[in-house]
């Protein structure tokens, strides 16, 4: 996907998130994030938006701490979130393609990284807001979902922070049935190594439509289908939280 497509998704997802949060109310519990209420979700996501925008706007090259507000609530908090989202979209849309700043996953450019990361960050937390409101979540395209799976498996879980590990080498496969995308996740005592292919035998396969897999792998929905050694599916559930 292109940066412009991620920016379009980011714009849509942020608006949906704010609308769902407003409908639910800031006191509402967030079923997909146990222990959170909508106020926690808005404070976190709005802070992430401002944190990300600052890297690009100020061309900051070193990681800075994320600071979440603790005193905003109700209508004021919802308005603050909407402003945070607008600032982020405006900053990314107006940035030079060659802007240099901090990133934390591989990407063609810092701008491409932040547009992609914030689009998926917002989409996942929009699902959280909609879970607090109730009703079916808004869908995403299979292409967007496939990209999100790729970012999660080959980006986040390639880092040393990943806790998805096994004492002995094991192989997990993930297959998006509607797009044909396949990932092979090699587990060991080290961080997972994921390739975009179906090479070799796998002990467990997680499969389903890309959108369902996207939400399931982010632990926002049940796994669509698991065949083989289901202990690897259970391991994902237990250890994959970012």
Question: What would you say this structure looks like, in words?
Answer:
The protein is α+β, with helices and mostly antiparallel strands and 242 residues long. The chain has 2 domains: 3-133, Four Helix Bundle (Hemerythrin (Met), subunit A); 160-239, 2-Layer Sandwich (Nonspecific Lipid-transfer Protein, Chain A). Helix content is 50%, strand content 10%. It has 7 helices and 5 strands. The protein has helices at residues 3-24, 38-58, 74-94, 110-133, 142-155, 210-217, 230-239; strands at residues 170-176, 182-187, 193-195, 204-208, 226-228. The protein has a 5-stranded mixed beta sheet with strand order 3-2-1-4-5. Helix 2 packs parallel to helix 3 (74-94) and helix 2 packs antiparallel against helix 4 (110-133). The longest helix is centred in the middle third of the chain and has 24 residues, at 110-133. The model has no long low-confidence stretch (mean pLDDT 97). Pfam families: MDMPI_C, MDMPI_N. Residues 8-129 form the Mycothiol-dependent maleylpyruvate isomerase metal-binding domain. InterPro entries: DinB/YfiT-like (IPR034660), Maleyloyr_isom (IPR017517), MDMPI_C-term_domain (IPR010872), MDMPI_metal-binding (IPR024344). GO terms for molecular function: metal ion binding. Residues 143-234 form the MDMPI C-terminal domain.
How are the SSEs placed, and which strands pair?
Blueprint: H1 3-24, H2 38-58, H3 74-94, H4 110-133, H5 142-155, E1 170-176, E2 182-187, E3 193-195, E4 204-208, H6 210-217, E5 226-228, H7 230-239
Parallel strand pairs: 1-4
Antiparallel strand pairs: 1-2, 2-3, 4-5
